[in-house]
Amino acid sequence: MNEHGDGQHGRKLAFFTEADSVAVVDARTASDADPRVREIVAVVVKHLHEAVKELRLTPEEWFKAIDFLTRTGQMCNAWRQEYILLSDTLGVSMLVDAIHHDRPEGSTENTVLGPFYVPNSPRYENGANINLDGKGEPVVVRGRVLDQDGEPIAGALLEVWQANADGFYDVQQKGVQPDNNLRAAFTSDANGAFWFRSAKPLYYPIPGDGPVGEMLAALGRSIHRPAHLHFMVSAPGFDTVITHIFTPDCPYLTKDPVFGVKETLIADFEQVDDPVEAERLGFTAPFWSVSWDFVMAPKADA
Ligand code: BEZ
Ligand code: FE
Predict the structure, then answer these.
(1) Which of 19, 43, 233, 248 is most buried as measured by Cβ atoms within 10 A of its Cβ?
(2) CA distance 224 to 283
(3) Which atom of ligand 1 sits closest to the CA of residue 169?
(4) Which residues contact residue 154 at a Cβ distance below 8 angstroms, ignoring those fewer than 6 apart?
(5) pLDDT over 70 (residue 302)
């Protein structure tokens, strides 16, 4: 664009041309528009136009894309967020997180939140069994919440959620699973410790009956998330950790459709064949045991 607001070869930017398409669109933005909104729209338009030009996209293909996005929106409701699923499966959720959560070495890494987090989970005392439908293999989860110096963080809130042994979250099976099955909040004690009983997580398919499922099928991609437990750990003055722990023996660890696996998040799940300890925990032997410490980084502005 020159000083008269003209495009390539002096053409006026009032009218649309393929060559000046980006500049023509940008030129319509009011000069007093919010600078960040201007910047975001300008960059998105630049890359979108570049993609359309590189692909020589046909009108039929563009209508298909619009239909795909329309159906993605129509699939969304209070318990189904197909746009989050689209962001996750395109790697965008993990990328935004990676850019903004570059924590000091040794801190627990974040991973994808996913669509099944529900705020205000029921609070339990440490030791509670959150496996309300009793399905799956029993597991005891123990750990501590620590700061960068290895000092305990007392009073941290640990929110936990996972799918049941049939591969569904409670919110996907309202009226089938007990409400808040495998979903809970705990508080770390004076030593930063927490513990609870649950079911060993299993791999499960992300919802595949919508546009995102169609896309993954067309690309020959797996829809199975490797087995994991979700955690959100928060404490005043610390960067909230949104993460999972993964079982090490899952065949889908390297095929996660949402790219959520990080090597540092793969835990040791030990099988324990001890009838006395099992009885003490209210389990039958053998059962699984996993220990996991969360190391929190200070909040960037703390
Ligand atoms: C989950 O682990 O709950 C999840 C994450 C991303 C997409 C779908 C499910
Ligand atoms: Fe999950």
Answers:
(1) 233
(2) 29
(3) 3
(4) 188, 189, 190, 191, 192
(5) no
